[in-house]
């Protein structure tokens, strides 16, 4: 499983960083941080073999040195300061790698820690890596069971996003296993047709005046007693089929479009079953234009764009008793979504829009800006999108940890799911399968309800699969 070609020579040592002000996304995340629902990014890679602890710790430390933007701490700040500042660290302030005691509950507890506690911003690096040895060989109850090793990386979302965490793990794999973990070239695609900005496309970029739908709450007394925080469900799904490509022509729609349509259909169905009011479904879609090689800038590099659907999108079942949706209606919905997403991806603007730019202008002290930002977030809560769907696509790196550790057989990630949105889908494709993570706020759903919603998403995704008829 280890690559046979030699590892490329390491590039020049990264240039020493200087203290830098928080970028826009980092500052907004810092203003809105709260302990009840920590803003953590969770990434876990499943390896078929075992790894050497000391060797892995050394490789991860060298990976941090190669990516100094992951080796930062927040400089001391007072409310009257004009900026939050990232301060580079020459070495970790604390040991970022830990090895929990193996056991049947070790992975579950590690996931709970990933959702319950953010790494501190005051010590470098603002992340932690837990190495869980899987030694259970019982019957498979989930796609993540069985022997092997799980690398579970938890990062503070103020500092890093999921693609940055994957880049850091890829460098660690290369330094540990000696195999080239360069990103694979993107799949070949047909020629891009010119995007004509029509009124429909503009509506996809700008939200309308109607309030987006909220995910209907469903939680029992046990969940109410648990209070706040996030829950998480990991599953594995087949990649839905698409029409065969015509040589030289652009694909009619992408897997990302199918995921968006599946999320829209499943959330519409969920709200119908729970008697929620009819409202447009709006999905937040991160778009990442960064390269995946060693030159990839770490941090929060995605821009968030809203993908809007109507209150009763064409293709959605007209009533709670009509499920699954009709294939012809789903096909129309896929074509319309493809037009909107192409327009959105070509659209260029601030990562969080003009409002985010204005809120982070260093005119007022950070303490005042934080209060204004939190107030604006609360006031805008009714217009927050229905859910977030973050699709990284195909895993760009082999994540090959050598002969003993092996190549990653599954990789999952999750993004924060704070209310009022309260729900996020994290999607990544590995080995021809979709690795899906559903993450939700416990103020919105309990475990049973989240599992039912995930089953609806699976049915809706299957309904988007091309059947050849």
Describe the structure.
There is one protein chain. With 469 residues, the protein is α+β, with helices and mostly antiparallel strands. The protein has two domains: 158 residues, Chloramphenicol acetyltransferase-like domain (Chloramphenicol Acetyltransferase); 238 residues, Chloramphenicol Acetyltransferase (2-Layer Sandwich). The protein is built from twelve helices and 14 strands. The strands form three sheets. The protein has a six-stranded mixed β-sheet, sandwiched between helices. It has a five-stranded mixed β-sheet with strand order 5-6-7-2-12, with helices on both faces. Helix 5 packs across helix 8 and helix 7 crosses helix 12. The chain starts with 19 loop residues before the first strand and ends in a 6-residue tail after the last helix. The relative contact order is 0.19. The N terminus is likely disordered.
Q: What is this entry, summarized?
A:
This protein has 469 residues and is an alpha+beta fold. It is built from twelve helices and 14 strands.
Structural features:
30% helix, disordered N terminus, 2 domains, 469 residues, five-stranded mixed β-sheet, Chloramphenicol Acetyltransferase
Give me the secondary-structure topology:
Elements lengths: L19 E2 L2 H8 L8 E8 L5 H14 L5 E3 L10 E4 L8 E2 L7 H11 L10 E8 L13 E9 L5 H16 L21 H7 L15 H6 L3 E9 L16 H19 L8 E6 L15 E6 L18 H20 L6 H7 L6 H14 L7 E8 L7 H4 L4 E5 L8 E8 L2 E9 L5 H17 L6
Parallel strand pairs: 5-6, 9-11, 11-13
Antiparallel strand pairs: 1-4, 2-7, 2-12, 3-4, 6-7, 8-14, 9-10, 13-14
